[in-house]
Amino acid sequence: MPMKKRNEHPPRFFLKFFRWYCHPRMQDYIEGDLMEVYALRRKTLGKRKADLKFIIDVLLLFRPGIIRPPKKHQNLNPYGMYKSYFKIGWRNLAKNKAYSLINVAGLALSMACGIFIFLLVKHNLSFDNFHQNPDRIYRVVTELHRDVIAYRSSVPSPLGEFFRNDYTYGEKIARVFTGRDALITLRKGNELVKFNEPEGLAFSEATFFDIFNFPLLQGNKATALTAPHTAILTERMAQKFFGNENPMGETFWLDNKLPFTVTGVLKNLPSNTDFKTEIFVSYPSLKSYDPWLASDKEGWNGIRDGMKCYVLLQPQASIAKVEEVMSAYVKIYRPTSKNVHHYKLQPLADVHFNPQYGGPMGKRNLWILSVIGLFLIVTACVNFINLATAQALKRSKEVGVRKVLGGVKRQLFWQFIFETGMITFAGVSVAALVAYITFPYVDGSFKTQMTMDLFSDGSLFLFVLALGIIVTFLAGYYPGLVLAGFQPVAALKGRLSQQNVGGFNTRRTLIVTQFAISQVLIIGMIVIMNQIRFARHADLGFDKEAIVMVPVGSDSTGTLADALKNEISRMPGVEKVSLCFAAPSSNEDWGNSIRFNNSPEEVNFRTSIKSADADYVSTFDLDLVAGRNLLPSDTVREMIVNEAMVRKLNLASPEEAIGQTISANGGEMRAPIVGVVRDFHDKSFHEEISPILITTYRNEYMNYAVKLNLAQAKSVLTSIEKSWSQLHPDQMFQYEFLDDSIARFYEAEETTLKLIQIFSFIAIFIGCLGLYGLVSFMVAQKIKEIGIRKVLGGTATHIAWIFGKEFVRLIVIAFLLAAPVGWWMMHHWLQDFKFKIQINAWTFVWAIGCSLLVALFTVSYQVVKTALTNPVKSLRSE
């Protein structure tokens, strides 16, 4: 390679001075640019002028903030550079208002969602973590092994007392039985004040307050619940019952039968606990409330919902050893039962998150929410990167001038990061304001009872701060590298192209990512909506429309119940009435083991008993497939079973079941089968249909099922309330439409659907913001090309298709990526249902159709406006 001539170099003295003065790390960034600019000037201006300008360039490098001078020259203002960054950044943002507004709006929406998701995850992770020694607190649960394994959070009532007396593994043991929908009455002179408490009250051993950190404001926790008929109330409940009076020593009644004297007042329970009951009464009182449940002998024969046992283990106790010794109780007290119990210890930290044992929030749902929040933030960052790289060409000459004047790559990079930080700070501020304003609505809609205080909640403040920093670097890193990497000569001469600012391929990739995320959310929303619609409108096997369930009343005798039934049946607007234990589909479940055809052994499956009168089949329009209906009776004389029972009994047909004998409830209920009904869903679609028997067992008639004419529903309910209250003046009249109670089976899915809908719309909206900004930039870049095409005969349709085909192609590619991911996610979500929809092709057609429609509306205004513009205007400057 030939040597360059001496006179082709700039003045050697100033070149050596530059190398001596410049920081070594910056020489590679600056010297190459200086030499390139010098060569360009020498060709155009000549050597003398090029040498003079080179000297001026070197002298300009001595200004503060460009390079680091020797220590003897160092006397800089550390804030000067950042002040300069702020001024330049503010001018650029103010100059490009649309660009700034789109980015701030996108970041604000995504970060507001991030704040809500953080609060929701934080709230759920904090459940019952405030107790002392939470790692040693366990709940005893039961696995029921029959033909299938069932999981119950309850245990036989004597288990806790026997374990306390037989072993020393438990430092403290507490039994708690919670009864829901308690009727609480107070007698103030001749007035009877009634309260219905949906969360009920808890019969609790005194050791409960040794295990759990629920402090008493009044009373002694060691003695407050030792005597029968004593009670502890929370502050809120004491205020509700007794107003501003001192509640200590006051008396209230449960179901107008059992009196309780207040011996303690609890501090209000925090919102982040799964204990919702605010009335605690002494456990010895259970003998008066339910003798069977309180019996240490009879209690082994079954499990009642609401009976819980909590254990504070000794520090060195082995969980495996405790579960092993508890298995002995099964052999001693349930040796012949086909319903084999396995007692397990469930950690307190698992109670809130384990759906098998009734946990309200699975950890999988929290992970899904967290991933969705991340998706939204990534979508907003993609927007920013797209628009920033698209805008980069407009700033190329600014970058070229700054580099010629000594700006180095690192400085330009941090300049852009600082500008990104300004946009992010604005986005965080708007997000915090949006979150604060909408928080009460969100908290009320999802019934979470969360709190939000940005400045007093340290974890929330750190999250918002970290979110702002991460988003700044995530959104600003790549555009900063692109801008800082411009070659000054090419920038000043306008030779930069789209390839120099990341190219269309980069932006295509980002748009595909953005729309793929949106389409995954749309697929999830469609599947959840279809599954909920299927559960609500599918044939349940019985009529649930216009049926209202009215409690019989705790003091009712058979005569009163029949009299009221007859009176209700004569009311105008009442079509049918039945006395029953519960509706065909209900959370109220009477599980039992049966014997078939005089067999000495029980069957190995669980049966659900529906005690009901002879009008039950016609009221709920159950379909008899064999045999006949029950005859009116006050005792168990006949039984009807469902098809699931026939299959479980291995009978060839429903007709074969007619005349066979079933013995249930420990032999107390024994009768022949006289009819078989078509299967109906007795629980939610999450569960299989149970084997069911229906029989006339008056002792368990808990409700009136009233079939109404909806046109007269209001007047009928008023009449029923009047008649009911006359018979039960000391009780509260309540009713519930059957379809409303069935809808509660899917509350968790409804909540998930709400969240998915909100996040899907936000993701789509953020994508639309970015798409609108990008198409505006593309239109500006191609304005003269469009003018030439129109002059040469191009039609408006042809011009619009130039832009449209690009976005259609990208959306189709995004769909090809999103479809398998969405299918996989929703396929696993549907596994929680025993009866579920199939994910068909229409789900994906709707997803891509929505994306195309949204993209069409987003780009159509700018594209159509450009296509219809007079080409003279766009070509006038040529």
UniProtKB/TrEMBL annotation:
Glycoprotein as UniProt keyword: no
Domain MacB-like periplasmic core: 100-327, 517-686
Pfam families: FtsX, MacB_PCD
InterPro entries referenced in this protein's UniProt entry, alphabetically: ABC3_permease_C, MacB_PCD, Macrolide_Exporter_MacB, Permease_put_prefix
Signal peptide residues on this chain, from the entry's feature table: none
Keywords for the protein's UniProt record, in alphabetical order: Cell membrane, Membrane, Transmembrane, Transmembrane helix
Chain ranges of the ABC3 transporter permease C-terminal domain: 371-487, 758-867
A single GO molecular function term of this UniProt record: transmembrane transporter activity
Protein name: FtsX-like permease family protein
Organism listed in the record: Chryseolinea soli
Classification of source organism: Bacteria, Pseudomonadati, Bacteroidota, Cytophagia, Cytophagales
